[in-house]
Amino acid sequence: VPRLTRNALFGLVTSRALERAVRAVPPVRRLTLRAARRYIAGERVDDGLRLTKLLLTRGLAVSVDFFGELVDDPEAARRASDDYVALAQVIRELPSEVWLAIDLSHIGLDVSADFCLEQLRRIAAALSPGRRIQIGAEDSSRTERTLEVVLAAAELGLPVMATVQANLRRSSVDAMRLVDAGVPIRLVKGAYVEPADVALPWGEPTDVAYVRLAHQIREAGGRLALATHDRVLRESLLSAFGRIDCELLLGVRNEDADDLVRRGLRVRFYVPYGDAWFRYFMRRLAESRGA
Ligand SMILES: Cc1cc2nc3c(=O)[nH]c(=O)nc-3n(C[C@H](O)[C@H](O)[C@H](O)COP(=O)(O)OP(=O)(O)OC[C@H]3O[C@@H](n4cnc5c(N)ncnc54)[C@H](O)[C@@H]3O)c2cc1C
To answer: How far is ligand 1, taken at its centre, from the CA of residue 75, in Å?
Structure first.
């Protein structure tokens, strides 16, 4: 797909037909998976764990994500949660810098908030102390529900970390709700194509919002991690704040990590695995293109 622009690729992310077509033809699936491998550890939990161990030897922290989103069948969501419980148990033998990353729609957000919270509680119970569960930010139709589950989880004492998308117009208010609840925030630009009344355009308006939000969160006493590959944003915020955690996606500007580690900063990699990689890959592919 070398000729497609960023926006055209984002259009394809939502195409179930394309996903089905790619999955249905084994050679196409294999080729697509080979291209996606840059951004994913593999299709199996062992792939995720192998890569995690490798990254740990480089002094990096890791959040492991078992791919999945948009599950509305309670049984499927419960099975996904069971897999996370097993993952939480497996990582017990690894250092406490290994955390979990979860999109709540994978574990039943679309079934109901209570159901989802219950799954999250089960997963947290299997996690050994000192680790966190990083909750992903999904499309804007799920922002409020995600926030409510995260805040309820925090109230129960679960070790959650939220993701705030700088492009959403509501994020300044959301960030303060999270800071007030003592929930640490991973700040991202935002990976979803959203309507104009909901989100700022990609590019400068989102970048400015990112800087403002970072300052707002810090001034309010919140805990913050910079999850961006934008070197200008990252360096300017590092100069402003001094030590602050940085996060990278697997396969994106990973060459920056060693330099940040050498400078004494904690760098966390997002390491996803699983066979539901298609939509994630399309989002990453779109972002690898210019406007
Ligand atoms: C740890 C982490 C967790 C995230 N979690 C979420 C989440 O929960 N919800 C959400 O909506 N978004 C999430 N994101 C994605 C984020 O919202 C952006 O979509 C993504 O990081 C690209 O934006 P950027 O900040 O890197 O800036 P950009 O301006 O997009 O990128 C800066 C530069 O990095 C390079 N680059 C960026 N992406 C790619 C790529 N795919 N391939 C090759 N080069 C690339 C390009 O050179 C680009 O110019 C997460 C990002 C990170 C790092």
So the answer is: 32
pLDDT (tens, 9 = 90+) of the chain, 291 residues, equals 445 666 676 676 667 777 777 878 888 888 888 999 999 999 999 999 999 999 999 999 999 999 876 778 999 999 999 999 999 999 999 999 999 999 999 999 999 999 999 999 999 999 999 999 999 999 999 999 999 999 999 999 999 999 999 999 999 999 999 999 999 999 999 999 899 999 999 999 999 999 999 999 999 999 999 999 999 999 999 999 999 999 999 999 999 999 999 999 999 999 999 988 988 898 898 888 753
In angstroms, the CA 94 to CA 274 distance is 20
CB 174 within 8 A of CB 142: no
Buried b (16+ CB within 10 A) or exposed e, 64-103: bbbbbbebeeeeebbebbebbbebbebbeebeebbbbbbb
Is the minimum distance from the CB of 35 to ligand 1 under 6 angstroms? no
Cα R_g (the chain), whole angstroms: 18
Contacts of 30 (CB under 8 A, 6+ apart): none
Q: How many CB atoms lie within 10 A of CB 112?
A: 13
Mutate to test the pocket of ligand 1, among 6, 138, 187, 188 (most ligand atoms within 8 A of CB): 188
The bridge status of strand 61-66 relative to strand 267-273 is: parallel
Provide the whole-model pTM: 0.94
Whole-angstrom distance between the N-terminal and C-terminal Cα of the chain? 16
Residue 271 three-state SS:
strand
Distance CA 113, CA 104 (A): 9
